[in-house]
Specification:
alpha+beta, two-stranded parallel ribbon, 50% helix, globular, disordered N terminus
Length: 582
């Protein structure tokens, strides 16, 4: 042990002389060294560095979030509801009320911790807290849906969202299913949530899991059924209310196919994008809309041509599935959305139901959201095209071509293979491709949509000028979709862009930052890609799907350069709904 020299004392005992007295020392000479210095003298090493004061990163995070929020341009989406009869207007209000309950369900399906997190953010009055809440209200998730990065939480997104236990991974699920094959159908069912019960995994039907919200939602649907004068709407609402409590959606899906009313609603568990673990479980959503019968009739002729489109596809006959041919087309204006229909990027149209039993019997309904389409073309699609296309081809950017591509995208969901091969049996394509199904099906509908518009031009159903317009508008539109990030649409768009560039269908000039589209080569490439994607689906070839996506479904240097050039163009819409009081 070290000694403090200044404190050493000499004691002399048994001395007859007067003790020695040292000369007086100024008091300050006896002052103890500072505590840190004394501890250093006692320590066996150099003086420890004081840890730096923590850096306050909240201002930087707030600035980054404000920039992200700015990527979504505010728009009001409405319709001419003042022209509706009183009965239908009252029914619409009841449907909005039911849809708000659907939102509560969806938030829990997206992430089990969403309700508590939203409450916590609402109580946080800091600038960062306010911005986190604002972005959460766009994403309905603490993870950015464009890149899955967390912005209001400190951990990665569970692959199963709130539909499975947060800590359940794919390997563990595979092992459990292998050990308990009799539980497979229940655990991977479309309408059940999965929980842990000790060492077991347990499937809980939606009707039980979300009973607190489904029972009042069903009551609101029945209320609307009593208010409306439209028989087809009343029929659907009654059967869908029953489905909420039974988990059997087959009949109500068929009733929705027959729905033909001024007020149309699509409400229930449909899409499977939240389930990134297996791509099986459905999420609740709602579209409350006002239909335009005249506009719908103008487009109805194309549904009659679906059999011709199927015959014309560049695929083998065995790949051409059999489905019902009713496939009605509706043009509507959105007045309220909820759940999966109101998170991150808005859809411009949809093609439902997904149940292949219904599709085989009755086909699928194509619904175009007219006011959403108009807003996206004006605020996003056209500005992007004007940035990335050579001036000589910008004249081909067309709102009509954009609408046609969206319509034929939805029509094309009903074309091509309807089932996948599995030995001597046939199974659903979603089961065969699992979590990569969406990333194949969405680009298949994109590219096949363009293929079928070109076919309509050749048949004389559309003017010849539409050829240039659809090719250029379709290609430019992919750069709108690729900004959606890592979802099925964004990854699928990247795959198409990179294929076309590799095949010389579009040439990028790094000096000007603009593309020149080779129309003939692009038309050829569209046919080839249509074939390749249909083959993957028909063969249920998950390995080939993954290989294709890993090679082409990436943000290449060219895509990143374009994204940087168009960074100030909004990514999507931030809607509000005056009819619903927003």
């Amino acid at each position: 042990m070290r000694k403090f020299a200044t404190l050493a004392l000499v004691v002399v005992a048994g001395c007859s002389k007067a003790p020695y007295e040292p000369p007086p020392v100024p008091p300050q000479a006896w002052t103890l060294p500072p505590l840190d210095d004394r501890l250093d003298q006692l320590a066996l090493g150099p003086k420890a560095e004081k840890p730096p004061a923590p850096v306050d990163d909240r201002p930087a995070r707030a600035a980054a979030l404000a920039k992200k929020i700015g990527q979504f341009v505010p728009v009001q989406l409405t319709a001419a509801v003042d022209k509706l009869p009183k009965s239908e207007r009252a029914a619409l209000d009841a449907l909005v009320a039911a849809s708000r309950l659907v939102q509560d369900i969806y938030d829990r399906q997206a992430f089990s911790g969403n309700p508590a997190l939203a409450a916590s953010l609402a109580a946080d009055k800091s600038e960062l807290g306010k911005l986190q809440l604002a972005y959460w209200r766009i994403m309905h998730s603490p993870w950015d849906r464009l890149d899955h990065a967390p912005f209001a939480i400190d951990r990665p997104r569970p692959p199963g969202g709130g539909l499975y236990p947060d800590d359940l991974g794919g390997d563990e699920l595979d092992k459990y299913l292998a050990a308990h094959p009799g539980e497979r159908d229940a655990l991977l069912g479309l309408f059940s949530a999965v929980h842990r019960d000790g060492d077991k995994l347990v499937a809980v039907p939606y009707s039980k899991e979300y009973k607190r919200w489904l029972e009042p939602a069903a009551a609101k649907l029945r209320e609307a059924a009593k208010l409306t004068k439209n028989k087809s709407l009343a029929t659907f609402l009654e059967s869908r209310a029953a489905a909420f409590l039974s988990d059997d959606y087959f009949q109500s899906d068929k009733d929705w196919m027959d729905l033909d009313a001024e007020v149309e609603v699509t409400i229930g568990p449909y899409e499977q994008y939240e389930d990134e673990l297996r791509g099986q479980k459905t999420a609740f959503e709602s579209f409350v809309t006002v239909a335009d019968p005249d506009a719908s009739k103008k487009l109805a002729k194309y549904k009659k041509l679906l059999p011709d489109m199927q015959k014309n596809l560049p695929i083998d006959e065995e790949m051409k599935g059999k489905r019902g041919s009713e496939s009605p087309v509706r043009v509507v204006d959105v007045v309220f959305t909820a759940g999966d229909a109101r998170r991150g990027v808005m859809t411009t149209a949809f093609n439902l139901p997904n149940d292949e039993r219904v599709r085989k019997e009755k086909g699928a309904k194509k619904v175009l959201l007219r006011n959403v389409l108009a807003a996206k073309f004006a605020k996003i699609m056209k500005p992007i095209g004007e940035r990335i296309l050579v001036p000589a081809q910008q004249k081909y950017l067309s709102s009509e071509a954009f609408t046609n591509e969206v319509l034929f995208h939805e029509l094309s969901h009903s074309l091509g293979p309807s089932q996948a091969k599995r030995g001597d049996k046939k199974i659903d394509i979603t089961v065969a491709l699992e979590e990569v199904h969406g990333s194949i099906e969405e680009p298949k509908a994109d590219v096949m949509g363009a293929y079928n518009v070109l076919y309509m031009v050749k048949k004389g159903e559309m003017p010849k000028s539409m050829r240039e317009e659809i090719l250029v508008t379709y290609f430019a539109g992919l750069f709108r979709s690729v900004r959606f990030g890592v979802d099925a649409h964004g990854r699928g768009a990247a795959m198409q862009i990179n294929r076309y560039i590799e095949e010389g269908a579009a040439k990028f000039d790094p000096v000007t930052g603009m593309f020149t589209v080779d129309l003939d080569k692009l038309e050829k490439s569209i046919g080839q890609l249509t074939h390749d994607l249909c083959a993957i689906e028909f063969n249920g070839d998950k390995a080939a799907a993954k290989a294709l996506l890993e090679k082409y479904g990436v943000l290449s240097d060219v895509i990143r350069a374009v994204q940087q050039e168009t960074a100030d163009v909004p990514v999507d819409l931030a809607p509000s709904y005056p009819v619903a009081g927003e």
